[in-house]
Amino acid sequence: MKAIPISNLRSRIKYYFDTVINSSEILIITTNKDEDDESVVIMSLKEYNSLQETNYLMSTTANRDRLLESIEQAKSGKN
User: Fold this and answer.
1) Which of 19, 31, 46, 57 yields a CA-CA distance of 20 to 30 A from 63?
2) Number of structural domains, the chain?
C-alpha cells in the first residue's frame, strides 16, 4: 500500500493507474486536510471484486465456519 498526495496523482494519473492495475497495489490518495477521513483509496477492479467476494463469503457465521473448516482440512491433507 502506498500513499501519495493528490497533487502527485494529478500530475501522473496514467502512471499511477497503470501501476495499480499491473501490480495490484492499493493507492491511498491524501488530500490537503490532515484527517484520515478525507483520503481516498484507489484499487484495481480485480482487487475490488476479490474483496467483495471475500466479504460475501464471510458474511454469515455458518458460511465462515464451513470455509475455515475446509481450509483446515486442506492444510491437513483431508478431503
Assistant:
1) 46
2) 2
